[in-house]
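Handout, page 2. Input:
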Amino acid sequence: MIRIKEAVVVEGKYDKIKLSSLLEGTIVATDGFGIFRDREKMAYLRRLAEKQGLLVLTDSDGAGFLIRGKIASAIPASQLKHAYIPDVPGKERRKAAPSKAGTLGVEGMDLNTLREAVLRAGATILEDTEERAAPQKREKSEEKLSKADLFALGLSGGPDSAGKRKALQKRLGLPEHLSAGGLLQALNALYGKQEFLELLEQPEEGGSEG
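Output:
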């Protein structure tokens, strides 16, 4: 497992599951062409790009490049890195037939190929559990929120925790349909633990103190 600074953008949930076997960090799925109409998710990607940078890893077919182009048109080039997978003929096991292009997507790639693609794109390595990362690429990470923190804050596993998450996500300008795990990932990508706790103590805009 390796941990990188940049948030990684993939096309679908199966790509995200596959990449989670390799990377520890923020992985966001565009839901295919859903990114073309999902303003909340695009706004989320912009915030991630500003905070930590984005690494785009889509399939090598035409659809993948359209999605890559959409993201590139909305995010400054200085905040983007692009990772590419090779054209490998075949189909994923879960699919009854190959894709229109007849090649494997991100979910069908072996982990070594994905690892090489991410590193070749210039990802900033924070930690590598298999081999020590180059010192010049290491960066000190801030303390992160945990699942226990969300529980203690009433944002998971408690009465109306879903409603509290939804209100918080609206307040912070995050996508509405985030699970507790998705919210935790987003908060750790955008805020340090102390920064987030201090933010919670601030009165909401338009609210009144006392």
